[in-house]
């Protein structure tokens, strides 16, 4: 379980996170929602050690995330798929995947590579294609597959649906749901697309100006029209 308490992150005078407290239960999807600039990306970047916290705590099981260096996060069981679908453009799909397996807790066996290409058949078909020639959706699948190869306990995803066709979004979200239900993966899903995110999530967390304004079952957020109109835009 991810346990975050009173987490504050500042960029100079900007308090991007201001005393954020929540837990993300194991084997569940927690959707992190909120307007542009609410602090969603900062939350993920703080948890994965890419920006330092000013105060508070964040623990993943026994691991203190705030004192774990970013390069040791994979071994600690945390994988972060940042915004923007970064792949190594000149390498093939397979080479990108093999990089994801480096430093994996299980050592990145061939069986794992076969497993992610089962999950994303298109990546198997395109394993020898150079990554910069993939479509946006294929590239998003590649970065998620690469993160899964590290065999994470928790997967942090920053706007995986951005710019993708609705059909591809549904496909990726269904696959995430399957990984959570079948393998006990824990997911923290940052999304602008609140409606789709909540449809596959167990819990919803809404940030506003760096503070948690709602933290409840996803179904409660979906059913509360006032709250939806105020924060979620649907
Ligand atoms: N490197 C930085 N330096 C200064 N301010 C920053 C930096 N990164 C983010 N901020 C500020 O921190 C606040 C939170 O930004 P953050 O990127 O976490 O928001 P977000 O919820 O992910 O927004 P979006 O939905 O647009 O991606 C914003 O006011 C932003 O301008
Ligand atoms: Mg963001």
UniProtKB/TrEMBL annotation:
Keyword Thylakoid carried by entry: no
InterPro entries according to UniProt: AAA+_ATPase (IPR003593), ABC_transporter-like_ATP-bd (IPR003439), ABC_transporter-like_CS (IPR017871), BCAA_Transport_ATP-bd_LivF (IPR052156), P-loop_NTPase (IPR027417)
CDD domains assigned: ABC_TM1139_LivF_branched
Keywords: Amino-acid transport, ATP-binding, Nucleotide-binding, Transport
GO biological process, one term: L-amino acid transport
Gene Ontology MF term list: ATP binding; ATP hydrolysis activity; branched-chain amino acid transmembrane transporter activity
Domain ABC transporter: 2-234
Pfam family, one: ABC_tran
Family from the record: Belongs to the ABC transporter superfamily.
Protein name as annotated: ABC transporter ATP-binding protein
Gene source species: Phycicoccus avicenniae
